[in-house]
Amino acid sequence: MAARNTARKRAFQILFESDQREADVLTVLADWVRHARTDTRQPPVSEYTMELVEGYAKRAVRIDELIGQYAVGWTLDRMPVVDRNILRIGAYELIWVDGTPDAVVLDEAVQLAKEFSTDDSPSFVNGLLGRLKELKPSLRRNDEA
What we know:
The protein has helices at residues 2-21, 25-38, 47-58, 60-70, 81-96, 102-116, 121-144. It is an all-alpha fold.
């Protein structure tokens, strides 16, 4: 599971960089892949990292809409950048990736918030993703319709 933990962290870092640079997330992903191939000091970008980033990119509008809708007291643009991007990866994996237990997705997102964000962020991330977890069946149904 350490490989998936690393993949999530790298996916978060790619989304964070994209957000900070105001660059297309798939362009940033391609930069990371190219950099890893040309610099032996850089670890390769894993398949799961690519799956998470590409999956988010495919559903970015919907994911941002959900985060904005269910983030109590925060608009997406006023939310801390770190939290916003942890939530983006977490929401994608929680709702659209089968095979990863929901509890693992929430725990990994909370761990990222503990490592990279504020003291209040882990409970914020856990609360919002917990709400999306409750709504997951209807969210998936609505998106498939």
